[in-house]
């Protein structure tokens, strides 16, 4: 019971393999009844049996290389089991190889390093190709693409296997050709044959026989002077025909490059990038440096290139204003053109960026004039007046011609010193002073005040009286003035009745040199006080006698007896007089007009009237307090003027006058008499 079947791999599904009924002598009609089944250790069921006919066919195509890998013989073992009765049959399937696989190399690319100093005849192993097919379908030979430096030789090992070798037939020069790309082809013996290729890259190893070479012997670059740190200036590049360490280039500044420039710039040792390192603090517009390129060979070779860096100016410096000299303060009488200050204006930028225009505000009495190079003079251009403006803050504006321009400002403080160019000025043209007469000595009358806008001693004002006379007397005998504050004092009492007004001048003088002065007129008006009693002008008495007026005995009513005339040296209401009867021997006979002073009869005279009468007239002014004067008038009733006037001092046929004095005398006399009588009575009593 064993049958061996042969089948090519990759046979399609349904292809006939054999017939188990015929091959094992089994009745095909009983296969189903006997519950046939195929048993195999394979995970897949590659074959199928027709239960009706016993025909054996392909159930699934077989991949020999997957199933048996590199085995030369590939067998599948199956067992056929039948029941009733139980029977076991063995089947083997021999899978035959077909040329369905091409030769394949382990790598897609194979690298070989060959030193350039090797001589022809040197050999190098090449990789073997693998073919999953067996027998004549496996790799049979190798070929190499044509190359003038290499050829291929196939060697046979002791076991009969073949392998390829690469043989150097011509000396190499890495600088001329650093790599050689060869195609190695492996072919099998199938019909038709199949092949596989692999790229063989031959790398020629370098020896340090070439120095680095720069692309340019001179590199030129231009950068802005305010370029920040890290700004790329230029990238130099050198090539070395060698490779590896022999062709690895390091860049650096040559030792001949100044230390300042080496600090100012950095060069990357590998990329050759030259960058700014810090601030470009140079005054030269063109910088020169030497850059060295050196390889990393055992005996390093080097070359140099020159780097010229042009520093392009940017307007990064503002004008600098320096005050070289300054005259302050300056006198206010300085003439136009007087030099006040000397300025130095510099800009560190070159070219247009360093050119500067300078100006000051137009509304100032100053101007800037160019002097030497980069110097300006600040001079006066108009008249100065300290009293109007005592100082100036002069803003100097300097602007360069860069784009954008930079402006710098500086302020000068110029003080104006005073000169004595202003006389003292009074607040008014004249002053009127009113003073009452009978003033005390040293009385304050008035204070004049003058102002002087000048400063210091030039503005300190002193006062004095100008020499003059008043009613024949020196002014200094009447008045005094305070030198410091202009207070005017009276040196004597004024009398309105003697001097009613006068004028004088007060001079205000400053303390400048030369001194300036101004005079003011002061009008003094003396006001009246009621210091004069009315003076009786009529009637007058001589030697203390009573003035006598003769009136006809039968005078009619309202007969003018006399008119009292008085005068008062005072003024205004102090001189307004009124007349009053202080005493009349017969109050019914006379009356007095208070305004005119006329004394008239109140009624017609009678024959029974006394011949002599006496009236006392009081003349009173309207001052406060009022002053008065009295006059006694004797009135004689007679038709003709007697040769001798009677004495009006005795009572004669005048009625007794009970005035206050008489009453006092009578009372005193009565008291003395009573006292004497009482004393006598006392003595009498004592005596008894």
TrEMBL record:
<dbReference type="GO" id="GO:0007156">
    <property type="term" value="P:homophilic cell adhesion via plasma membrane adhesion molecules"/>
</dbReference>
<feature type="domain" description="Cadherin">
    <location>
        <begin position="561"/>
        <end position="648"/>
    </location>
</feature>
<feature type="transmembrane region" description="Helical">
    <location>
        <begin position="663"/>
        <end position="687"/>
    </location>
</feature>
<dbReference type="GO" id="GO:0005509">
    <property type="term" value="F:calcium ion binding"/>
</dbReference>
<dbReference type="InterPro" id="IPR002126">
    <property type="entry name" value="Cadherin-like_dom"/>
</dbReference>
<feature type="domain" description="Cadherin">
    <location>
        <begin position="322"/>
        <end position="426"/>
    </location>
</feature>
<keyword id="KW-0130">Cell adhesion</keyword>
<feature type="domain" description="Cadherin">
    <location>
        <begin position="427"/>
        <end position="536"/>
    </location>
</feature>
<keyword id="KW-0812">Transmembrane</keyword>
<dbReference type="Pfam" id="PF08266">
    <property type="entry name" value="Cadherin_2"/>
</dbReference>
<keyword id="KW-1133">Transmembrane helix</keyword>
<keyword id="KW-1003">Cell membrane</keyword>
<keyword id="KW-0732">Signal</keyword>
<feature type="domain" description="Cadherin">
    <location>
        <begin position="106"/>
        <end position="214"/>
    </location>
</feature>
<feature type="domain" description="Cadherin">
    <location>
        <begin position="215"/>
        <end position="321"/>
    </location>
</feature>
<feature type="domain" description="Cadherin">
    <location>
        <begin position="6"/>
        <end position="105"/>
    </location>
</feature>
<protein>
    <submittedName>
        <fullName>PCDC1 protein</fullName>
    </submittedName>
</protein>
<dbReference type="InterPro" id="IPR013164">
    <property type="entry name" value="Cadherin_N"/>
</dbReference>
<keyword id="KW-0106">Calcium</keyword>
<dbReference type="InterPro" id="IPR050174">
    <property type="entry name" value="Protocadherin/Cadherin-CA"/>
</dbReference>
<keyword id="KW-0472">Membrane</keyword>
<keyword id="KW-0677">Repeat</keyword>
<comment type="function">
    <text>Potential calcium-dependent cell-adhesion protein. May be involved in the establishment and maintenance of specific neuronal connections in the brain.</text>
</comment>
<keyword id="KW-0325">Glycoprotein</keyword>
<dbReference type="GO" id="GO:0005886">
    <property type="term" value="C:plasma membrane"/>
</dbReference>
<dbReference type="Pfam" id="PF00028">
    <property type="entry name" value="Cadherin"/>
</dbReference>
<dbReference type="InterPro" id="IPR020894">
    <property type="entry name" value="Cadherin_CS"/>
</dbReference>
<dbReference type="InterPro" id="IPR015919">
    <property type="entry name" value="Cadherin-like_sf"/>
</dbReference>
